[in-house]
Amino acid sequence: MIKEWIWLIPLMPLLASFVTGLLGAKVLKDKSHWLVIAGAASSAVLAIYVLCLTNGNSGDAAVFVDGFEWINIGGLVSNVKAMIDPLTAVMLVTVSVVALLVVIYSKGYMAGDTGYFRFFAYLGLFIFSMLMLVLSSNFLMLYVFWEAVGLCSYLLIGFYYKKPSAAAAAKKAFLVNRVGDFGFAIGILLIYLNCHTVDFTQVFAMIPELAKTNPGLITTIALCLFVGACGKSAQLPLYVWLPDAMEGPSPVSALVHAATMVTAGVYMVVRCGAIFTHSGTAMTVVAIVGGITALFAATIALVQTDIKRILAYSTISQLGYMFLAVGVGAASAGIFHLYTHAFFKALLFLAAGSIMHAMHDHIDLKEIGGLRKDIPWTHWTFLIGALALAGCPLLSGFFSKDEILAAALNHESLSWLGWVGVLTAGMTAFYTFRCYFMAFHGPRFMPKDVHHPHETPVMNYVLAVLAVGAIFAGYVNMGEHGWLESFLGRSASVENYAKLHVRGHHFGHTTVMFISIAVVAIGMALAYAIYGKGREKAEKIARALQAPQKVLLNKYYVDEGYDYIFIRPLRKLGDYCFGSDNKCIDSILWAITAVPRSLGFVGSLFQQGMLQTYALMMLFGLAVIFIIALMY
To answer: Which residues on neighbouring strands pair with residue 63, listed in sequence order?
Structure first.
């Protein structure tokens, strides 16, 4: 039954995107959302159906569904073929369900926009690309849709292309991802050169033997693939594009941060478990980069004032948690957190979009405050999302975050990263509730151009549904070996990580839970003490800590460093090449063309466009011919 339905999951949003782009401007206009909503809804329903069928299958082997032969050149054979296993099924549901809710929300958020049909056409294409990425059964197909997701993000981040900051953000995202994707492409090339195939099943079967004969090669391949993951999933040092991606509409931020582009890197590393688990060095790098990124991004979020930018750094930090989980061998915990994070982060971004909608695009915490009575739906749903992100007990983020902390704290050699995760959890609680208290509590004030803040019903309904997900999504994996962990364990990719013997027994789950609750409570209490009733205390602290606050406000000057080290030298090189082209190449071309141009100039003297002159010259020529004839 899976084989009969699987291709409809990505094709429905693609068809909706195509028709919307074709007919939106002239025919559909302000009804352009309906086709994309229908396409996303069809994908979500079918994805849930596939999940149920996969869960009901007794075997652990993946199901493959042939599409068509795509490339067959020499020894390179690559088919468009879908691979369905528990990992695929969970990702399909996460992507399609969250995408559906974002598309429905966009109906209210984008109402009246001049690019309304274009926006929904891009959304449909984005959803299609991510679903095809998840369904990929070989590295070449994965790479194509990896790039397609990047293209769609470029189009959506730069949706307001007439706005210079949006155009610059889209360009930045595109260029930074090219750096990561270059490493990813090198990794795939090394795989093909040594395995002579790009098919997942065949490559993964060859890895154990290659690891015995050439372990350095496996490490190189894994690290190259991880460079690609760092670009897509915004990890150090390639994270700089994600905060600027806030220039796109809020629904785009929710889709990019929650269920599509940034999760692709985590998914790819888990899918390639056969490669990463055969390199202890690569696993260590993944864990360290993830843990350090989680802490690094959390420190920056402590002082930011733009709500969407706070949430952006939060996404970078939470993605770091996911990579930390994968690096310490707890891939199921990483995917579990990816799944819960999709709900509460989409909720927070869409709630931030609701604030922007009510405040005429003002979202800086220095300009707004005390909004809980003005936009009550947004207030309560944002609070639920904040509680889930902070990891409060009984909400979804609590369950998935604790799984990661337990795995990291009990790692044989990297347990120190567990304490990095604990510290990050406390910071997460602090900056999340700092944002909440500043936006909704304390004295009420708002920009002068905002008179009557209001909410939109369709946006409120989507926020309510996501709030339910933020509360209950974690209950699918309750217990020491919950359903989701057992289900994902049937995937060969996840099983590779589960086989690693890298866990000690230093901390039980109950101990980790109490540690987690304690640091979260401390973070929330500090946020309330400083920001709960006003901003006077925060201003005093800021004045006392001006130097570190300046460093954090400027994001450790990483962008300025990149500008100095890479961008300026490249621009100078470009200016030099441009000057050389003008002075040298153009001069040579001018010299080469000088002769025909001179001859043309001389010939042009006889071309005046006057008929009487032409007739006189003809007569003169005939006279000369006649005289010569008489002479001979």
So the answer is: 84
